[in-house]
Amino acid sequence: MEQKFTGMQAVGEIVAEFPKAAEIFKENGIDFCCGGDKLLTVAVKELILNEAMVVEKLNQAYAALVKNKQENVDVDWRQQSFTQLIDHIVSTHHLYLQRELPQISEFTNKILRVHGENHSELAKVHKLFHVLKMELEQHLIKEEEILFPLIKEYEKNPSAQSLAKIKNVTNDIEAEHEQAGDIIKELRKITNQFQYPADACTSFKITYQKLEEMESDLFQHIHLENNILHPRLQEKH
User: Is the pLDDT at 123 greater than 80, yes or no?
Assistant: First the structure.
């Protein structure tokens, strides 16, 4: 089988070319959003994973995609306009967070009240999630009200001045992505990889499932910006 991917490629580059790779990386705990510039060989060594096995899984999945002629299922966002990519991020990932953050907040409140006495970790889960919620809500506003309008305007009327402004804002945005990624990693650690305990009620289970789903969506969201949108803008002069 032809080797499409190797350990000497950056994980973000692999996901940009082959979006389904995100599922394999997530299964193995490989950070492809904030850590997207890291070579796969470095990422797997840090996690003490079998590099050959991960690479093989990537290539098998890619070969299956080609064989079944499903290339058009996944949009190559590197080839779309800035406006198309931004509209996708807002309508998919921003909308998801705006819908889910209030719901997860209610669930974390509920399980802390009911199970907090017997599960001390829930106090920290509650605190971390609400710090993340506040930061994400401010982050979405900054993107929708400042960064994205700047990029759309630049696409219509390019200028060195507007590009410089965009690059300054994207630096702040990426720092915020890093902070969100750190909180998500801490949440995963505290919840034992989002594994609920044996005495968990339905609300407890749903809370952890929703936290893990949020992690997955955030990784895709940050990936599209850190590894595709922002680098394309950085290449402009």
Answer: yes
